[in-house]
Amino acid sequence: MKEDYYDYLFKIVLIGDSGVGKSNLLSRFTRDEFNLESKSTIGVEFATKSIELKNNKIIKAQIWDTAGQERYRAITSAYYRGAVGALLVYDITKKNSFENIEKWLKELRDNADSNIVILLVGNKSDLKHLRVINDNDATQFAKKEKLAFIETSALEATNVELAFHQLLNEIYNVRQKKQATKNEDNLTIQPRGKKINVLRKKVLKKINTYFIKTIYNTF
């Protein structure tokens, strides 16, 4: 697959608290790399990767890794604009990271397009022995907010590809449905024609005929 060729370009944002593993999810998906000593993202970083859908359409994902620290949130909020998809990430071993998901979700919905596709991601599933967030709690939250949900491990590469592919496929499906609806709306819009009052036309014809006969008889 040629990286410079694609049918669609989708902007994706990774959001969530600092330290939940957003940068490693990005590097695992785009470069198949994992860094145990990964430092906190400063501001915004991004990478790209193309995938091929079952219908042979090429999707190029432009993935933005936003900093989770409070002091950078005013900067990163501007980067939500134009995003069509988001991975909302928390750490299954950190209670605060899950509790803050609602705050991140609100910020996302306040700044991004109303049709943005969001996938809730519980990262670090390899640390099951340290788990503090039950997957049932995450499932219930996702259901309430109408989000899809998946658990991943950037360290073990578990479900990372699946998470991004699932998100990109859903974005494509949403856009196709939106385009189909738009096309249907265009077909139902009929050009405004000239209204013809048939009865009035007949009356005017009779009046004109009367005046023509009157004028003829006068001469």
Short description:
It is found in: Cell projection, Pseudopodium membrane; Endomembrane system. With 219 residues, the protein is α/β, with parallel strands linked by helices.
Keywords:
six-stranded mixed sheet; Rab_GTPases_membrane_traffic; GTP binding; alpha/beta; GTPase activity; 219 residues; Small_GTP-bd; Rossmann fold; P-loop_NTPase
Strand order of the largest sheet: 2-3-1-4-5-6
CATH topology: Rossmann fold
Beta content comes to 15-25%
| CATH class value | Alpha Beta
Largest sheet: 6 strands, mixed
What ranges have pLDDT less than 50 throughout 5 or more consecutive residues? none
Give the CA-CA distance, first to last residue.
90 Å
Kindly state the number of beta strands.
Answer: 6
How many separate helices? 7
What's the helix-strand series? Answer: EHEEHEHHEHEHH
CATH architecture: 3-Layer(aba) Sandwich
Rg over CA atoms, rounded to whole Å, is 29 Å
Structural class by secondary-structure content: alpha/beta
When the domains are counted, the total is: 1
Which shape, going by the Cα principal axes? globular
State the fourth-level CATH superfamily.
P-loop containing nucleotide triphosphate hydrolases
> How helix-rich are the residues, as a percent range?
40-55%
Mean pLDDT: 83
GO molecular function: GTP binding; GTPase activity
Protein name: Ras-related protein Rab-25
Keywords: GTP-binding, Lipoprotein, Membrane, Nucleotide-binding, Prenylation
Membrane topology: Lipid-anchor
